[in-house]
From TrEMBL:
The keyword Isomerase applies. This is DNA topoisomerase IV subunit A. GO terms for biological process: DNA topological change. One of its GO terms (cellular component) is cytoplasm. Belongs to the type II topoisomerase GyrA/ParC subunit family. The lineage of its organism: Bacteria, Pseudomonadati, Spirochaetota, Spirochaetia, Spirochaetales.
Amino acid sequence: MAQIKEIFDQNFLEYASYVIKDRAIPDIKDGLKPVQRRILYTLYRMDDGTTHKVAAVIGQTMFLHPHGDASIYEALVTLANKDLFIEKQGNFGNIFTGDSAAAARYIECALRPFAKEILFKDEITEFTPSYDGKMKEPATLPAKIPLALVLGAEGIAVGMSTRILPHNLTEVIQAVHSALRGEKFELYPDFLTGGLIDVSDYKDGLGKIISRARLDITDNKRIVVRELAFGTTCESLISSIEDATRKGKLKIGSISDYTSGAVEIEIELPRGVHADDVVPALYAFTKCEVTHHVHCLLIVDRKPRVMTVSEVIDYHAVHIQELLKQELEVEERELLNKIRVRTLERIFIEEKIYKKIEDLRTVKEMQEHVHQGFKPFSGTEYEGELTDDDVERLLQIPIRRISLFDIEKNQKELTTMQKRLRVIAGYLKNLVGYAIDYLETLLRAESAQSPRKTEITSLDRIEYKAVALRNLKLRYDEKEGYLGTDLTSGEIIADCSEYDRVFYVAADTLYRTIELPKKLFIGKKVLYITVFDKAKMAEQIFNIIYKHKENGYAYLKRFRVNQWMLGKNYGPLLPAQGQLMNFFIGENWQITPIYKETSLLREDESFHTSDYLIKGSNTQGVRLKAKVISKVKLKEKNKDK
């Protein structure tokens, strides 16, 4: 058994590690999940300036992705609809209406130049074997901007999850730019569906936001939805409105969807209903308002880590410097190699080293001749030793090229490359400045293409209980002992909404707080029933006059209720030897006793409740007088009770 447990533990850990690191959670370096990375890399490999059938892209991606074509298709369509890296051709669905994309064989796509600029550089990309070991794929792409924030991400792994909302491309680049300059920045989500958001609880990517649809009230009888809350579609919004209407949470006359290129959902209101009354209910009970909780979890150095948005930006402010440094070093090496090749060619041709090769018979003699011919120039005209590869390359220069060799043109090219080397050396000494210049170039190219679509504002909180329709009649039928909203007889206690709770004190002085019942038996005699209001209940003063069964003395008990867990019985409010005489609510009451012996009766004798302390509901009462009281008369202010 111990061996079996060890096997299961090991397998579970390997599975959990795989799902977390290689499937569900994006890597901070490029902000991509593996399937997204493989799609983009496949498009990069297939790039030839034309669009490709999505079915073909999926087929090529399957050489890298072991989870089937359906997951690749869905990920590709979702990524394409971000309108960032993939050029679309055909029906890729509609993010507003929720319509799905056409089949993969009918639609085409290609990689945008912007993606090639910021995502791909083979010389600085780390490659790993694909799942079957037959191909190579990038471990991460050298992304120069934090794509986790631009694209957003949502994934559920074993024991953890991530929820990152998408942000505006221009604002993300500006945030990295500010971080490089050591300036403060603020970054908040932005959605393609527009709408309004309240970011007061965003907590730098670890809190929540409230997203609302943008409503256009042209007159008080018609409401038009112009933009959607994030995460909703026209279909889901209309469905939520219809559902709320069926449940009696709001009143509308009709709803029509005219959405095409832009959202336009028209809500007509019935007679006697005005937009000012309906709008709060739309926010409270439909998908016109949605709350999104966020949790920024990313893979950092092959380990999951919770980060704030600011930490992600700061990470990429350092990461972009490293990427640009690697690119500059690659370019520097390439330029040095080109300069060396051009210099060797110039010496080979100008000094006519090639002339005597015609008289030599063996390759070895030719190679030795070239080595001897270059010795006078080593260390002055070129750096390092002349290698056999250099000699072989020189010997392969065709005679036509030698005869057409232009000394001045060659010198100009060498001068240009040397000038570029000096520029690169300057960039390497000031990587922060170079990164800032690079980002400013991106901003000039992309800012016009990426305007903010979602308006950041402060939204008033809608209390759904406050805006719910009070269209339910709560009744109590004393004859039958039933309480509920489905009763047709009995006293009407209050007009209620479905969110109301009911507080009542039963004849045995047990008290409860319950959900609004349709029909519930609570007894044929109830001391008190009301719609529960926590604030009012905390201030409400209850009064009980009870008689002790043994001595007949009357006691007054004054208290507040401070326990009301839903559905739980509390009490009884009377002591074991107590017999209820009166139950009443309020602070200022006059109590006039009627004694068992009429000779004790005094017209001017009375007690005032305000003279007695208010205690807890579990305490004993205070004796009114050491005489047997048969009953009392109650008077509140100027009203006889």
